C-alpha cells in the first residue's frame, strides 16, 4: 500500500493483478486498485475531478481526466473517508499510475489539488 497526505487529505492505494486476456490480437494485463480518501483536515471538502497518468513498461502513456470518481463527487467532513475500486488495462505486465484529485474546501470555496502517490502495477508471475 502507498499513502500520501496533501493539505490534510490522505490518499491510500492498494493494487492487485486481475489477469491477462487477448483483445484484438493483443495481450492485455488487467489491474485493480482500491483508493481510500481520508479527510484529516478541519474543513469539509468535496472531490470535483481527477487526473491520472498511466504508464506501462513499453513506454505507453495514457492520461485520464474526468469529473468525480466512478460517477461520484463525494463530500468528506473532517474525519470521514471515501473508498472506491477501479482498474486499468496495460499492454505490459508492469506499469505505474499517479495523478491528483481536484478538491474544493466547502467553507472557503477555494479549490486545491491533492496528490495521488505513484504506485506500481505488476503481474506477480512476471517478477523474479
Automatic annotation (TrEMBL):
- Pfam families given in the database record: DUF525
Instruction: List, for all copies, the residue spans of the domain called ApaG.
Output: 3-128
| SUPFAM superfamilies noted in UniProt | ApaG-like (SSF110069)
Q: Where along the sequence do coiled-coil regions lie?
A: none
Q: What is the protein's given name?
A: Co2+/Mg2+ efflux protein ApaG
Amino acid at each position: 500500500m502507498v499513502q500520501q497526505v496533501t493539505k490534510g487529505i490522505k490518499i491510500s492505494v492498494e493494487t492487485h493483478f486481475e489477469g491477462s486476456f487477448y483483445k484484438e490480437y493483443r495481450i492485455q494485463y488487467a489491474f485493480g486498485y482500491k483508493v481510500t480518501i481520508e479527510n484529516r483536515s478541519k474543513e469539509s471538502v468535496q472531490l470535483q475531478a481527477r487526473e491520472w497518468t498511466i504508464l506501462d513498461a513499453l513506454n505507453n502513456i495514457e492520461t485520464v481526466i474526468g469529473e468525480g470518481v466512478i460517477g461520484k463527487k463525494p463530500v468528506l467532513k473532517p474525519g470521514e473517508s471515501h473508498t472506491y475500486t477501479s482498474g486499468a488495462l496495460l499492454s505490459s505486465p508492469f506499469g505505474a499510475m499517479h495523478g491528483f484529485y481536484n478538491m474544493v474546501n466547502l467553507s472557503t470555496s477555494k479549490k486545491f489539488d491533492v496528490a495521488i502517490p505513484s504506485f506500481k502495477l505488476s503481474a506477480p508471475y512476471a517478477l523474479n
